Amino acid sequence: MSRTFGPYLLEKKIADGGMAEVFLATKNGADGWQKPVVVKRILPAYADRREFRQMLFKEASITTTLSHPNIAHMYDYVEIDGYLCIVAEYLSGRDLHDVVLRGNKLIGWENVVHIGCGVLDALHYLHTRKPSVLHRDISLHNLLITYDGVVKLIDFGIARYATESESTSGFRGKRRFMPPEYLHKREYTVHSELYSTGVLLLNLLGVEVETAARLAQQDVPVELRNILQRATQANPQKRHPDVAAMKQELLDCLSAHCRSDSGPQRCLQQLMATIYVDTASRQHQSLVETAILEQRRSAFTNRSSLQLFAAAIGVMLLSVLYPSSMAREPQPAKPLGPTAVVEEMRGLINVNSHPWSSVYLNGNFLGVTPLFDVEVPQGDYLLHMVTADGQRRELPLHVKPGAELSLFEKIH
Question: Do 202 and 256 sit in the same domain of this protein?
Answer without folding.
Answer: yes
